[in-house]
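Protocol step 4 of 6: structure prediction from sequence.
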Amino acid sequence: MTTATDNGLSVLDGSQLRLLRAIDAVFLRLADGWDVPEFRYPHLIRCRDLDLFDYYDNFPHLGLAATRLDPQRLKTTLSEASRPVDRMPTEVMEPTAFALPSAACYAIYVDLAGATLPGEGTMRTTVATCFRNEERYEGLQRLLGFTMREIVCIGPEERAKQHLLRAKDAVKALCAELKLDVQLNVATDPFFDKNSSKAKMQRLFPVKEEFVVNGLAIGSVNYHRNFFGERCNIQVGDDTAHTSCLAFGLERWVHTLTDRFGSAEAALAAVESLG
């Protein structure tokens, strides 16, 4: 069973971990079927790269930084503090250039910065531990740190849009096989700067739709238009790249499938029986 605390930290037991790996293997087979290569990126991202994406303007409530502790100040502070230390005081923290990412795909765009891709563009899949500074946490449904699998398209506008259509069909088919009652809902998360022209377009054409089961979003499809292509100077031939992605929250899938089948073991059997 899962053990959890009220600060968003949960532990997966053996059966839950096997289920998480099995469902991720399903998503990887999906990527393989689309000839999408897998990459693994650093666990941290530079603050300047997130700022390039307007992250701190649009998602200030989610931000988490990875900072170095000054050893001398830390030693002095700890010598005067009651132990164990519940919160690390800010005076022992040094300014940091690195952040904990809240999505897996940011690293892909940073890695491709300045690239000129072939006319059809490219696709990549990656898995990452992502972090979000939420107001509340709830077991595997809402975690401080969680696992995200993404399948990302970077290419011409039409290919990026086609990726979303194919992705939606694939996830609906998967949920049907697992007998999950899934709804596809337009998400209300902000993405673009609220005063930008892209934000105005967002209100007319949704950029994010979520796969929702029993009120919980277990995945999403996201269309960023040419936002990341512009910010990272990624070209497709003579044009700026458009990007789109299919994202899964793996712990949320563990929760949802366990709830659907009654136990992690039964859910694992159902996932392993998929064609």
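Step 5 (inspection) to follow. The longest strand covers residues 145-155.
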